[in-house]
Amino acid sequence: MHYLYSHNDLDGVGCGIIAKCAFGDDVDIRYNSISGINIQVEKYLNKASSQGNTDNMLFITDLTVNSELEQRLNEYVKEGGKVRLIDHHKTAEHFNNYSWAQVDVLHTDGRASSATSLLYEYLITHDMLTRTETMDQFVELVRLYDTWEWEAENKIEAKRLNDLFYMIALDEFEEKMIERLQSPQGFLFDEFEVKILDMEENKIERYIRRKRREIIQTFIENKCVGIVYAESYHSELASELGSGYSHLDYIAILNMGSRKMSLRTIHDDIDVSAIAMRFSGGGHAKASGCMITDEVFRLYVEETFELEPIRTDATRNQYNVKGSETGVLYESWGEDQIFIYLSPSGQWVVEWNNEQLSFHFPTFDEAERHVKRNYGAWLAKDEVYVSMLTNQVRDIRTRNTNSTSG
């Protein structure tokens, strides 16, 4: 008998679907949360110890166990037990010290890996599963979504597969996918699925627009963080917020219902897995998570609760546009105004309420990043920009008139 204990997201369930294609009814599959896997594995080891049956094969995919169970699994294997742990998270690479574990962040061809793609390769290599074009397509969609590569490659089908996963019951999703993978016609969404996915897309867009108005900004441990409370569409939301507020180092999404925090970044020089590990979590360099512990609650909730949401940049401007060498106006809290312009020396200068600040920047983007990170500024509307220029002209004329009359 085969046993597969996996994560309860698309990648984890993808492992279960591939396992059912390989073993049929000869596999017992259990999907677990990050914390629930330890309970599941402990039950398995206790049962295996009492029964003494070493013919069973245990697969653990897309999740890892705590240090105590890590040692128990190793002893179980030494005593003849069969275990294969397959994962792709950077924070689990120390499991590669064991012969029964495989943690690969990348495939041998350089592609970012997922648990589903790694298990698929393992089963094919060990003659437990026959490769088909339809399964290739399904596994690749899961991999693209789980690694975020679907965005760069514009593979909307990968995102839609994840949407469908959360829209229908887990049993129904499994049944639909297994039936589809056994068909030679290729992996396609049926007409009904396309309709409900179109409706879901509109729902997601509305949800993201609302959450964009709720995100707050602060510094936590020298990182500029965007914090938002959300229970749904974490990947889509993080993608939109990360690109829309690129001055933020990472996005922290707090799901208070499940007491979990998801961390996402679009920056290559930020490793959110290290941040998650600091709070006993883990994951990938650009996508990780942890539980909302007392310390997480203090840093991300208590100390930021009174902050105002980030204001969005003006979007329909014709005059006050980013990068304009004659000057770009930003607003900040308390009716403060920040003006960025190109000086004769070729450096971008920042003025705070008409007073020039001491630092200069080689590019406009760097100047804007600075004022957004440090002053929570947003691009002013055209009418505010025109009003500022009008007031400046009036002040100059008034000074000239007074000088002449004097």
Overview of the structural elements:
This protein is an alpha/beta fold and 406 residues long. 44% of the residues lie in helices and 20% in strands. It has 14 helices and 16 strands. The strands form 3 sheets. Strands 6-7-8-9-11-10 form a 6-stranded mixed β-sheet. The chain has a 5-stranded parallel β-sheet with strand order 2-1-3-4-5, with helices on both faces. Strand 10 and strand 11 (287-291) form a beta hairpin.
Mean pLDDT: 91
The total count of helices amounts to: 14
Query: Distance between the terminal alpha carbons, to the nearest Å?
Result: 100 Å
What is the total tally of β strands? 16
Strand order across the largest sheet? 6-7-8-9-11-10
Structural class: alpha/beta
Give the amount of beta strand, in percent. 15-25%
Helix content: 40-55%
Q: Give the oligomeric state.
A: single chain
Low-confidence stretches: none
Which of globular, elongated, flat, extended, rod-shaped describes the shape?
A: elongated
Tell me about the largest β-sheet.
Answer: 6 strands, mixed
Q: Sketch the topology as an H/E string, one letter per element.
A: EHEHEHEEHHHHHHEEHEEHEEHEEEEHEH
Rounded to an integer in angstroms, the radius of gyration calculated over CA atoms is: 27 Å
